[in-house]
Amino acid sequence: MSKRNSYRLAAICFAGCLALLLARVPRAAAQAAAPAPGSRLRPVHAIEGDPAHGKNLFEENCSTCHGIDAGGEEGPDLHGVPSALGDAAVEGIIQHGIRGTAMPGFFDLTAKDAADIVAFLHTFDASTAGVVSGDPKAGQAVYQSSGCSGCHMIDGQGGSIGPELSRIGDMRGPTNLKDRLIDPGANLPQNGTGFYGSKWTEYLVFRAVEKDGQVVEGMRVGEDSFVIVLKDVTGKFHSLWKPGLRSLEPEPGKSLMPSFKNTLTPAQMNDVVAYLMTLKGAQ
Ligand code: HEC
Ligand code: HEC
After folding, report:
1. Whole domain around residue 97: which residue ranges?
2. 39 vs 248 pLDDT, higher one
3. Which protein residues touch ligand 1 with a CB less than 6 Å away?
4. What is the pLDDT of residue 236?
5. pLDDT at 83 over 80
6. CB-based contacts of 121: which residues, under 8 Å, 6+ apart?
7. 177 and 266 in a common domain
8. What pLDDT is recorded for position 27?
9. Are the C-beta atoms of 121 and 94 separated by less than 8 Å?
10. Taking a C-beta distance cutoff of 8 angstroms, is the pair 232, 266 a contact?
């Protein structure tokens, strides 16, 4: 190698290390630092992403909220999201977050890191592609006649036993939605601890048996050392004195939402899913 080439190599290494170091500076410093000149000239989605590196970054930074397979936990299912929103939009969300929500901005991830994560998310495209086969109009009618709105709110209308669905079409894929209708409790957390304050802990069902044998089942809406407050399927609150209970246990895998496996036909379920997929919130 000529002397000149080795100088060049050294310079490249130095620049590379510097870039790595800059990428690692703590979040606050990264936020305060002015962007390197020219760093935003190229649209970020023009960068070719590396899915293997993206997978590592995802597991480190995103999986606690979006699930290890990006299938959604307290954060939404991300399968199919880059195809729906566009790569550039998702890269923007990763770097800047979504204001007013629990989705944080990752100011210390570079544009290349964001592109790598998007490349990783594209590896799930097959699992969500082309599944909307129902008729949304028919689905809306099924939704209205099946009691869904007794528990779910859409655009301010409906009950509040289950999560609001106004933006569900942006947050979940068709497969995920259909699974929910068939087996509602399947994706809920496995115990009452951990995930505290996460969306899904809220919907975990607890079963309390009182001294006289009366059973109360509901979602925990409050708890301290002596009292637990459960909200039952009718929306009624039960304030229970814990030392006076015969037993109190979480019921993992159970949901207050009934399964529609035997009450709706597969075609009706596809219609409901098609309807839910149209719910994108106020634009
Ligand atoms: C602290 C929890 C948390 C972490 C960590 C987190 N997210 Fe999120 N993310 C959320 C929540 C909650 C939302 C939904 C925000 C809303 O209500 O619009 C969201 C929304 C998103 C969306 C928009 C989805 C859509 O369809 O609109 C994308 C994309 C996303 N997150 C990607 C990521 C990636 C990639 C990472 C890791 C770099 C990450 N998130 C880390 C909680 C999190
Ligand atoms: C008795 C109340 C109740 C009824 C009736 C009900 N749900 Fe639910 N639903 C819930 C609860 C509680 C959850 C949260 C726990 C879970 O996912 O199992 C939920 C969760 C969901 C989710 C997942 C939301 C998310 O953020 O991923 C969807 C989608 C959904 N319901 C749709 C429907 C549809 C469509 C119907 C009617 C065919 C329906 N629900 C009927 C209570 C109900």
Report:
1. 34-128
2. 248
3. 61-62, 64-66, 75-76, 78, 81, 90, 93-94, 98, 101-104, 106, 117, 170-171
4. 95
5. yes
6. 54, 58, 70, 78, 79, 81, 82, 90
7. yes
8. 39
9. no
10. no
